[in-house]
Design a protein that fits this description.
By secondary structure, this protein is an alpha/beta fold. About 30% of the residues lie in helices and about 15% in strands. Strands 2-1-5-3-6-4 form a 6-stranded parallel beta sheet.
């Protein structure tokens, strides 16, 4: 029989994270496009990010018929958090947010699934791209990063927002994420964790961040 789950955070009621989820405001609007294969993942950091940010929207699927409307939200300039040859460092692009707030579009899935989101939704390919600084380390200790600097989706969003809205801080958003990781480590036992995971960093695309590209929450 399935365990009762919290309707909000989708965790088992005995491990509900809602008390740790903040209510953070941001000038930047965050649109998270989560590949449908990630929605049921136990480590769903995209959902935690959307719950913790008042100015955020989480959509699940592979193709999004309303994407044009979401990107045309009045008063915002859309950009895509995803690496690429044309990607601009987020700190540089942040200057554009001084006059017009940004709509930060974040694909969420493994790198392969995140790329598929771009392929299936050509409007995303036309957006200006921003990328995170190099040399970042993930706190996602239950997964080996597919490449150096890969972060979970929620970590990538925090880094991007802090660069765009400096000196504002968004680290509170990571509280439920860290509790989730600690709970997973406790459940597997210290010995198992040390043997299989200690010393390996975890990730997401982008987990671009986004649970990252092959990253994933």
């Amino acid at each position: 029989m399935a365990r009762p789950e919290c309707e909000r955070c989708k965790r088992p009621q005995t491990r509900c994270l809602c008390a740790l989820i903040p209510h953070l405001d941001s000038r930047t609007r965050v649109l998270i496009l989560q590949h449908s294969s990630e929605a049921g993942h136990a480590l769903n950091t995209a959902r935690l990010a959307a719950l913790g940010l008042d100015n955020a929207q989480l959509e699940v699927g592979e193709t999004f018929s309303q994407l044009e409307d979401w990107l045309a939200l009045p008063g915002y300039r859309p950009c895509l958090l995803f690496p690429g040859d044309e990607a601009v460092p987020v700190a540089d692009f942040a200057q554009a947010a001084v006059a017009t707030p940004l709509l930060l579009v974040v694909p969420d899935g493994t790198w392969r699934k995140a790329r598929k989101l771009l392929y299936c939704n050509p409007l995303l390919q036309a957006l200006p791209r921003i990328t995170l600084p190099s040399g970042l380390s993930s706190r996602y200790r239950l997964r080996k990063a597919p490449e150096p600097g890969a972060l979970s989706t929620i970590e990538a969003i925090v880094v991007a927002l802090e660069a765009i809205e400096k000196p504002a801080q968004f680290g509170e958003l990571l509280r439920p994420f860290e509790a989730l990781i600690e709970g997973q480590i406790a459940a597997m036992g210290a010995e198992t964790y040390q043997r299989n995971h200690a010393g390996g960093a975890a990730t997401a695309a982008p987990e671009t961040g986004p649970d990252a590209p092959e990253q994933a929450d």
